[in-house]
Amino acid sequence: MKAGFHNGVVPDLPVRTSDEPLAPEAYRYIATHAWWMGTFYDEEGDCHAHLSEHLLQQWTPAAQDADWLLDRVVTGRVTWLAGSAERAADSGFDLADHWPVGRFRAPFGDFYADLNETAPRRPSGDWATPTPAFVALLPRDPAALRARLEEDAPPGRTYTGPFRSAVDALRSCMLPADLRAALYAALLQLPEVAFVDEVKDLDGNLCHALVHDLGPTRTELLVDPVDGQYAGERDTLRRASPCGLVEGTVIAETSVRTAVVPSIGAPPGF
Description:
Blueprint: E1 6-9, E2 16-19, E3 27-41, E4 47-61, E5 67-82, H1 85-90, E6 102-107, H2 132-137, H3 142-152, H4 162-170, H5 177-187, E7 193-200, E8 206-214, E9 217-223, E10 230-237, E11 250-261
Antiparallel strand pairs: 1-2, 3-4, 3-11, 4-5, 5-6, 7-8, 8-9, 9-10, 10-11
Helix pairs in contact: 3-4, 3-5
């Protein structure tokens, strides 16, 4: 462990959390390797579902009102889960139509403001867009944090709830070590969440996982075993879907690595 890190241990779990110092002018570099699902319906109403590969690099500033930078690539690699590439292509499907690609730079991380012909907007601060002010006000006691999660996103809803809200915030990779530790402990108080010591991400890296096994998908929240940082996700269908996908189909998967870099656009040390 590097000197100067803030270290902690998630209560009752073999998960360590630590932060590399982030100077006011520095950036957090976030590399995401993803396979995400998309669907396309042809003229006959048949569903064609596919996974496409994405490579994202993001530079998030310590000073949130400074410029952020996102480099987004769709590699062109596709795996078809339902339907076929040939029939989808005959009906006009083009992968390039589904995802914005290129290099985007904007304050507050509002990367697509130019595409929408709007001015970049400062986020108000919530679980999906955790500003420093929002983060500072969150409790560090796991029981109080669970109560806050359940107040903001009541359990029992299909696509929202306390687990999803926590994952949204962790995905920013900007939560401090003490809050990450409290979040993991809070999530493991939920009856539908279990801890798995060793799983592999899509790139073969060993991670811890907090597994949410309820609703239409089984979601694995991946955690770096070295510093307790968010390390990706995996969503697997718990039951067959109307699009013809069978139970056990992986419909989304990411592997995430982070580093502190001195300036926007600077390469990481890994």
